[in-house]
Amino acid sequence: MSSRKPYIVAEMSGNHNGSLDRALALVDAAAEAGADAIKIQTYTADTMTVDVKHPRFQISAGHDLWGGDHLYQLFERAHTPWDWHAPIFERARERGITPFSSPFDRTAVELLEKLDAPMYKIASSEITDLPLIRLAASTGKPVIISTGMATLREITAAVEAAQGAGATDITVLSCTASYPAPPEETNLRRIPVLAGALRLPIGLSDHTMGIGVPIAAVAYGAVLIEKHFTLDRADGGVDSAFSLDQAELRLLVTESERAWRALGTTAIGPTPAEKESLRFRRSLYVVTDVRAGDPVTEENVRSIRPTGGLEPDLIGTVLGRTFTVDAAKGTPLTWDLI
Fold this sequence. Notes:
The chain is of the alpha/beta class. It has 2 domains: 7-43 and 79-263, TIM Barrel (Alpha-Beta Barrel), CATH 3.20.20; 272-337, Antifreeze-like/N-acetylneuraminic acid synthase C-terminal domain (Type Iii Antifreeze Protein Isoform Hplc 12, Alpha-Beta Complex), CATH 3.90.1210.10. The protein has 12 helices and 10 strands. Strands 3-2-1-8-7-6-5-4 form an 8-stranded parallel beta sheet. It has a two-stranded antiparallel sheet with strand order 9-10. It starts with 6 loop residues before the first strand and ends in a 20-residue tail after the last helix.
């Protein structure tokens, strides 16, 4: 069990819908919900791809959210303008929430360094861009690596690239890079496998609907949960269909900590919280007034709550014996009475 509650990251992505005011409102809402961090993405359409109308640059027509979109136009719509970064970071710091970003090229890292970004997130599709990983790691800041689509060999190569560039604080996120992601393909059982293979803290970048999957991930040892976040799914942001709203984010914060606390230890036996309940286990009691010389019968001795009398399993031993003293109803049956 991690010594700290899960770290909750609210991913803004393109859910600002092209409005700086909405981006700042998202920061406020994430802070009010209790998230630890707000994450954005630092790219432009030109740093991500080229403006070519060719099928290889086009998302498949059957995609649930962006079917038929060309990459350049999608990134134009979804990107966070670079002149918004400073006010977003400033608002987050004012609200006591940590701002950081996913850079997608050298110019993005340079911008984020000017803003004193406290850490870097490598997106799943960039896990094989080892030069980018080395660049982010060379800043000396913590690096978070998302692993959607990646093989263990690719994940190991990314981690080694970060370590080779000087990173000493690396978190790896289990991820299914599908939007939204089917719960049955989330494969939370790989979290402890990754932890054992990499000997690093493992979290979850989650694109499923709701909070059930990330709560379950905590039980598998996830130390960080990243979820896309929107003010209102009905507003139709590029990622809004699989994003949490503020009420759901607040619930994730609360329930992930509750799940973490529930992990406890491997000890088996009564806990301090059960001390009072222990008093109300069953035991053998005198249940009607009896006098010395009366036989012990099923009518005057029964197994009831609370404790204090003989163990219930001794009923066969005591039946037919004789009371040696008078005893009132509600007296624990002990050996000195019979």
